[in-house]
Amino acid sequence: DTAVSQTPKYLVTQMGNDKSIKCEQNLGHDTMYWYKQDSKKFLKIMFSYNNKELIINETVPNRFSPKSPDKAHLNLHINSLELGDSAVYFCASSRNRAYEQYFGPGTRLTVT
Amino acid sequence: AQSVTQLGSHVSVSEGALVLLRCNYSSSVPPYLFWYVQYPNQGLQLLLKYTTGATLVKGINGFEAEFKKSETSFHLTKPSAHMSDAAEYFCAVSDQNKLSFGAGTTVTVRA
Lengths: 112, 111
Prior knowledge:
The complex is a heterodimer. Chain A is built from no helices and eleven strands. Chain A is an all-beta fold. By secondary structure, chain B is mainly β. In chain B, strands 2, 4, 5, 9, 10 and 11 form a six-stranded mixed beta sheet that branches.
């Protein structure tokens, strides 16, 4: 059983398009996260939700909008995609904010 | 605010040699510290963690790390490198609110 899953694994799209990435965890965790990993492998947190409530929003352009329909799901919608959005996006979950995080396999987004 | 510095963006070791990856942190509260490994085209996998208690923590795949408060360090070691250890390694610190990652260290293992 996959603990944290993301779809799609690869996403290639053109500038200006809108796309979504979905994340699901079956660990029963209360907290979920979105990270962006750039081409230099640097990981930066974007958002965090605890029990469907947004608790971290790190200076991310408002073209990025997370949505958590329930504790097990955290989706990321991106409007008006730009070249600089090309990266690998990771979803993660943890029991709560103090505990270790479990990562999904990542979604490689390429904007052309 | 919290931050992590990983000394050395790239480490090359011979198979069977000691692996030592350095991590220094800064945190305004007692930190929770983690090491993660990322294999090519995969997500991050937790190697080990320090929260409280014993300062020498053992993780998966033969790795261990020692928390040294006086040196604000959490270096990762493995006595004998294996080819399968080639990967990207990230140190991270949590202030019980969010994780901050270091820039990562790429480990290559020479046969």
